[in-house]
């Protein structure tokens, strides 16, 4: 089974940016990789879900199921989801071995300033209840395989660090 990479962090922390770089790098090296981005999935297979705790649980369950199917077929799933609860990430780790977790660590005020999709603004305006970082808590990962401080490191530095760590562990 192919390894799964799971990126977690606040909205606008840089998860999709690093995930996109990982997928591109894998493809350039001849590996088949698929980006499973939380925002894209919420517009499709998870469009019936909101942001309550139960809906977040179901969102993660669906993404894990899709990632498992892809990994069984030899594709490397690169999952970029907020996945704010430690239970979400624990479930993913249990179901998706080999599993590599990246905590995209970025202060909330920096994420709110970046806000490329306007989600922080919408949440501040009351349009998105239970928004992670404002109304919904984010449990810091305790067992991430790599911590990417996206307000201090470049995407290229994080990309190389992730690939080196995965290679060292025999995942690539």
Summary tags:
single chain, 172 residues, alpha/beta, 5-stranded parallel β-sheet, globular
Give a structural overview.
The protein is globular. It has seven helices and five strands. 44% of the residues lie in helices and 15% in strands. The protein is an alpha/beta fold. It has a five-stranded parallel beta sheet, with helices on both faces.
Supply the number of helical segments.
Answer: 7
Strands ordered across the widest β-sheet: 2-3-1-4-5
Rg to the nearest angstrom? 15 Å
The CA-CA distance between the termini, in Å, is: 11 Å
What's the layout of helices and strands?
Layout: E1 4-8, H1 15-28, E2 33-37, H2 38-42, H3 53-72, E3 76-80, H4 86-95, E4 99-105, H5 108-114, H6 119-124, E5 146-149, H7 155-168
Parallel strand pairs: 1-3, 1-4, 2-3, 4-5
Helix pairs in contact: 1-7, 3-4
Could you write a compact summary of the structure shown?
Helices cover 44% and strands 15% of the residues. It is built from seven helices and five strands; from the N terminus they run βαβααβαβααβα.
